[in-house]
Amino acid sequence: MSDGESWARFEMLAMPHLDAAYNLARWLTRNDHDAQDVVQEAMVRAMRYIGGLRSEGARAWLLQIVRHTCYSWLRENRPAEKVLLDDPDAAWRDLPAPSADEPPAIAMRKADRRQINEAIAALPIGYREVLILRELEDLSYNDIARIAEIPVGTVMSRLARARALMRAALAPSARPVLRAVPHSAQGGTS
Question: Under a CB-based contact definition with an 8 Å cutoff, are residues 50 and 11 in contact?
Answer without folding.
Answer: no
